Amino acid sequence: MRIGIDVGGTKIEAVALAAGGAEQLRLRVPTPRGDYAATLQVIASLVGAIEQQIGCAGSVGVGIPGTISPATGLVKNANSTWLNGRSLDRDLESLLSRPVRIANDANCFAVSEAVDGAGADAGVVFGVILGTGVGGGVAIARQPRIGANAIAGEWGHNPLPWPTREESAGPPCYCGRSGCIETFLSGPGFARDFAAASGHHATPPQIIALATAGDTDALAAIDRYQHRLARALATVINLLDPDVIVLGGGMSKVDSLYQAVPRLWERWVFSDAVVTPLRRNRHGDASGVRGAAWLCGRPPGAPPARRASRSTGAEGAPRSTPGTQHSGGGSTSSWCRRRSRAKRSNRWTMWSAMPSAR
Ligand SMILES: [Zn+2]
């Protein structure tokens, strides 16, 4: 059994996957915002609750809205700021008494869609989350590409390419710069653009509904959004040339993107023809937590793990390799023992009162 944990800004979700990827159980609790110790306890409790209900110990992978810095071993870049500067992997290993793998949530999304989602037929998947923020992740042969600095795929804080005169200054971004892709392509960025152009404030779902009803301001906002997404993804194709690009997050629900954007990006991609498919995710909101579960062991269809190499940055290398976030050894199967053999702890008992979303 593989257990995946997705640490979000408002909720922490856990899933248990059987060997073939079938979902056995999913739990969801509110994130104890600002409280690191409580966050650790919630994660441990979710793992305990799953193992208690299923009766089997599992491997644990965790997706976070940041990454573990290879330079310090501490969390960086998390907009859930109470995680930053913390030794999350080691603390969880200590709490759970087993190896724990941690990856950025966009990487988890890419892995999930690469293993058995919209990119299951592709060797290289670029996964994009267009939500409250904008993140990207790369999965190669169904494993996350982490990178020497653990930021592979972090394209949301590149500047919006080929900006128009109106776009060139760009809105300020929380990262300290202005005009980041995220400031245009996130849900809040889309709503801000609509409000600036129309004078009306609306949420992204409301704007999408207005566009469906034929509202000209909403249609124009979606048109600008599509042009910006096409330019931003053209730079990804020029750099990485992935076999498929998969969209996730709230803005991935805009149906017109999948036809319009590939038609638009041709003018900015340095190629005579562009065959890259742009696809909607298959696993929806569950993709992040499923990808976290797949961090452990070899997913179905993945090639055999390679020996440690400083150049790959792919999962499967030992902890000492920069760019990996593998915390210790141990195969998935070795963690899927009968619960009677697993280490028991009284801390699981609090779980009888914990709420579940499903
Ligand atoms: Zn930024």
Automatic annotation (TrEMBL):
Species of origin: Defluviicoccus vanus
InterPro entries in the cross-refs: ATPase_NBD, ROK, ROK_cs
Compositionally biased intervals (Low complexity): 304-325
Domain of life: Bacteria
GO molecular function, a single term: hexokinase activity
Region feature (Disordered): 294-358
Pfam families recorded: ROK
Comp. bias (Basic residues): 336-346
Name used for this protein in its record: ROK family protein
